[in-house]
From TrEMBL:
Residues 174-185, 242-252 have a biased composition (Acidic residues). GO terms for cellular component: motile cilium; nucleus. Residues 1-28, 172-252 are annotated as: Disordered. Functions as part of axonemal radial spoke complexes that play an important part in the motility of sperm and cilia. GO terms for biological process: axoneme assembly; meiotic cell cycle; spermatid development. This is Radial spoke head 1 homolog. Keywords: Cell projection, Cilium, Cytoplasm, Cytoskeleton, Flagellum, Meiosis, Repeat. Residues 1-14 have a biased composition (Basic and acidic residues). It comes from Formicarius rufipectus.
């Protein structure tokens, strides 16, 4: 069903309201029969998108409200989250930063609502990877991440004017000889922090990043590691890809 403007060829053109065969509805601008311009699309599932369209696809600035209560507000390109935007997850966590092809990609900040911890750094295809800071309530870690885990050299910054330098080492599991012919099953192993020295505060800089000045905060116990927070984020990220794009099933 359609109620709205049409052009001389009888195509939907201008402003109109439509109800799709699947129960979804759209109200907004059309151009030559396609959703183009500003509009609001309501899904039968309860999801809602309001923003810009180009030839039936979300393109430009827009806000998507997902059925689980999460929300994305930002840039869209060809129906994908792409550019800069903020995602508020159902559990209250937030990510603000760059997106590419529907995933967190580039520079961004992820805030964990329950703990107040914050990851500020690089992302690759939705995973924490590259130079970053993991900032907790009373201390912070500065270093690099690989596949969502801290890796290699880095440092913890404390509020009493010193730093603990060291590196995260991936501990390899030993395999018994009689198991060599059996299929090897790899189990996830947390990287282990190995401290090397304590110094006064020094600037933090990476070859591919400009120096970052960081406020100082309290020392953690030696066993405290940002790895757990990274793991929590990756799990939450899986909830992000809620099936949503039912809208292109066609209009009558």
């Amino acid at each position: 069903e359609y109620d709205g403007d049409r052009n001389s060829d009888g195509e939907r053109h201008g402003y109109g309201k439509a109800r799709l065969p699947n129960g979804d509805t759209y109200e907004g601008e059309y151009e030559r029969g396609l959703r183009s311009g500003r509009g609001t699309y309501r899904f039968k599932s309860g999801a809602l998108y309001t923003g810009s369209y180009l030839q039936n696809r979300k393109h430009g600035k827009g806000i998507f409200f997902y059925p689980d209560g999460s929300k994305y507000a930002g840039d869209w390109v060809d129906d994908q989250r792409q550019g800069h935007g903020e995602y508020t997850y159902a559990n209250g966590d937030t990510y603000t930063g760059e997106w590419f092809n529907h995933k967190r990609h580039g520079q961004g900040t992820y805030v964990y609502k329950d703990t107040g911890s914050k990851y500020v750094g690089r992302w690759v295809n939705g995973i924490q990877e590259g130079p970053a800071e993991l900032i907790h309530l009373n201390h912070r870690f500065q270093g690099r991440f690989l596949n969502g885990k801290p890796a290699g050299r880095g440092k913890y910054v404390f509020d009493f004017g010193c730093e603990q330098h060291g590196e995260y080492i991936q501990i390899e599991q030993e395999k018994e000889e009689e198991e060599e012919e059996e299929e090897e099953v790899s189990l996830p192993v947390e990287p282990k922090w190995k401290a090397s020295e304590i110094t006064k505060l020094t600037p933090w800089a990476h070859q591919d990043e400009k120096p970052t000045s960081a406020p100082t905060v309290n020392e953690p116990s030696e066993g405290v590691s940002p790895a757990g927070d990274a793991e929590e984020e990756n799990e939450e990220g899986r909830q992000e890809e809620v099936p949503e794009d039912q809208e292109d099933q066609g209009e009558e």
